[in-house]
Queue: 4 jobs
Job 1
Amino acid sequence: MNTPLAEEDAHWKVLCLLETNPELSQRELALALGVSLGKTNYCVRALLDKGLLKMQSFQNSKQKLAYLYVLTPAGIKKKAALTGLFLARKIKEYELLRKEIEMLQEQTKAILD
């Protein structure tokens, strides 16, 4: 089962990818995310249902009809909020890892001295 944190990360990653590459198909999006096509479809549908994305059709030489996934103003705002949360979490993880590395370096130095 998806945790809220994992779902937020998935939504953030999808919003980031589609903001810069709105022409990505769900199959290409799944490949870029490293998840199944079904999970990607579920995530995109959730973002569409929440009004964070909208679909626009366009002609594509490879396919007769394809879609652009465009972030709505609410999607842009949500992406910014999720980016802030993601960044704060990563900074906290970095600080914990830095402290662990310092502790291991001190232990190693004490053993070698």
Job 2
Amino acid sequence: MSAKQIEQAAQAMKTVFVFPGQGSQKAGMLAELAEQFSAVQETFAEASAAAGFDLWHIAQSGEGLDQTEFTQPVLLTASIALWRVWLELGGVMPKYLAGHSLGEYSALVAAGAMSLGDAVKLVNLRGKLMQTAVPQGKGAMAAILGLEDEQVVELCAKASTAGEGSVQAANYNAKGQVVVAGDKAEVEAVMAAAKENGGKAISLPVSVPSHCTLMKPAAEQFAEALEQTAIELPSLPVIQNVNAEIAADTAALRQALTEQLYQSVQWTKTMQFVQDQGIQYVVECGPGNVLANLAKRLPNIEKAFPLDSKSRMEDALSAILVAEGKIA
């Protein structure tokens, strides 16, 4: 969608669109919507041409969907397909966009900062670099539940000091929910310590430890690809993962995308930012409803809507139009 089209669309004042990251994928995603809206298949065809492989086949069959280099472009494309259907059906333009990890690229494409083709190539490379940065079985990630953020950070620091590797808070997802990532032994030490301190710990089935210092080599290589990619300032404000702020220029945007690989996802701060701006409605533009469910816990968010089925899309369209005063 062009910057002019974005400007001409009905503008929402109370709505944020959020785009999910890795973990939201599932075989058969968007199959129902693809039967109803040609934009879904057209978007996947456009992205597949850029990527050089059939993204729709992967999305429907599940073949390779657990491999990071394929997961990332498939999820990005699915999110943009939903975005295009939303606009085709007359959905309002949100006040802000934000994406969780990989989802930040979906947000940037939706806001016109980069083309879908360029973004697909970038995240395919991003996935490959992440996969090769850490030998299989060396890294791990775990969700720590029921502890304060500061407690989790302290446990990570102790485990890193005591062990030979390192572990960090990777995703601040919500109050009492922090994902840690790093060397396997140190992650396991944090899990054990979390349970001793009254929290819960769940090992995550991931192939790479994202958003920790183990990803620095990948970030250094990825920065070169970012420099070669055409990027403009978004036509809609996109809240960045690393600092929960809006980039002032394209240099800052590129830097934030590079740092995003090895720094924490500040999702808790991101959602606090949108609440501080008076946002009351969250629309999750991607497969699943992970981010919508997180948003439902927040005090100032009235409703959160996923979009990944025809009925959910219709519910969100009508509810947001009414909430934003576009229809009575």
Job 3
Amino acid sequence: MYGKAFAPEYQGALRDMSVNTAYEDVLETARQREHGAAEAGNALELAQARLAVAEACRRLGRLDEADAAWRGSYRAARSAEDKGAMAWALWSGGTLARQRGQLNAAVRWLSLARDLAEQAGEVVAYGYSQAGIAETLRIRGDQEEARDLHEKLLAEARKRGECRHTVWALEGLAQLDRNSGDLDSAWRRFAEAAELAEGGGDERGLAWALRGMADVLSLRGEPDEALCLLSRGEQICRRMDLSSALAYNRKMRGNVLFRACWYGEAARTYREAWDMFRSINEPRGAALARLGLLKSLDKLGRPRADTERDLRELRDTLDSRELRHTRKMVEEAIDELADMAA
């Protein structure tokens, strides 16, 4: 039996905030609490408030503010000598690093968060950190290691009846299944994640699950149904101010349109996603949207030499040590064009 979703990153005086509170509202409330804690000289409350500020800013795409906030949270937690609060701050920093495409730093911060959480007996922070490591490994291309960790996390989440953790683990495994070509398994996992998220009131998890289901439907040749699911997910993202999730939703819409051979609309949609990712300084998403845009323009008759040049430039912007999976996708697109020209 699963309980309702909650947001453990909202702590202390902020504990009563809903997991579905819009992030502009979270930020306003957390800033007020931060000011009050600073005036009162309460280091632990200051760490908790700054953690919420960091997470709200990260979700809103204000990444420099998020970086300052998680570091401030860590300093306050260390001053309070609270290892649990220190772990949460490092978790936030690791999650931000992943969003910025700094995958090695993400693993480092999240591993430190996991170790501190274990020392403090902070079970939820430990699980969040492990989940963050698993997701980072998957994005980096370490598929088998990521699958093993996701499986362990899923078993633990099911045992404790934690809605959000179960949803996250299911979505991670579903993405791995999709990447390996097992669409039936991917669909089952995404669909279960969507059902659990909706039942548990986890709109964030639902938005990501809907995106995954749309991807599978598109790959099966059902673009209209896929676009309907993406529209539903987009409404959630806009209501909650989920800047990054909204950009990925838009990029997936481009994928669906491209696969349906609606190249003009796909190009416009990829360009929108590219602009959105660049505005929040998210290099992985920006690279994927740019890749989709270039492939769409090629289908629309753009000179092949121009597309090949831009793809090579895009490839060279991607660090092979961190965004190697994304770089591999660009290299595959370059090879495809070369094969077509041969």
Job 4
Amino acid sequence: MSEKETPKYQLIANDLLHKIQTGIYPQNSIIPPEVELADRYQVSRPTVRQAISTLVNQGYLERRRKRGTLVKKVKIEQEFTHLIESYSTEMSAKGIYPKTNLLYFDEEPATAEVSQNLQIGLKAPVFKLVRLRYANDQPIVLVTTYVPQERIPQLLDYDFAQASLYRILEKYQLKVTRVVRKLEVMEADETTANLLNIAVHKPVFYFHTQGLTADERPIEFSIAEYRGDLNSFVIDVQR
């Protein structure tokens, strides 16, 4: 449909959405009143009202009595629950700018939990990788990953502030072909809260992930702590 064929209310909705996504109308701000928008776009108030209703139904705006129309905090739909792909790939596909802050990367002896999930001996050497990941400069997930040292000793050669772990594993014929995930909802402790920029005790989604290669051997064990206020999760089940 060309712009000439697009209804006026939809063109206005598109423009308002662009202003929301680019920060002209920030989260929790009040957008201009209908009468002002009608004058700005040179349309009737019912047309503006329809545009606003479109964005309300899509979850971008919220009408508040006596206050006006509020820009809502929009959650990011995470689809890794039924897809196997890198964080950067998934975010980029949504038009979101991904960024990674590498907090820690070194070799350590496996704990009981790590050795069980990687099916290796207790205290066997593993690489521990801790990354704080962002979406449009907003911290949204803290990820701690363990990889068995014996299967890919070259891992320390890479800068995981930039590199994708899944792509590196694939380069060494260790592609993750299946994952097993467990979800818990817990309260953020002080360290997690500070890193994710949320209050202590706020809800956090904990995903425990075991990544397996084609031979069904674990190559990765990760604990991802997602902010509850900025993330939602898509579950796609087929029969």
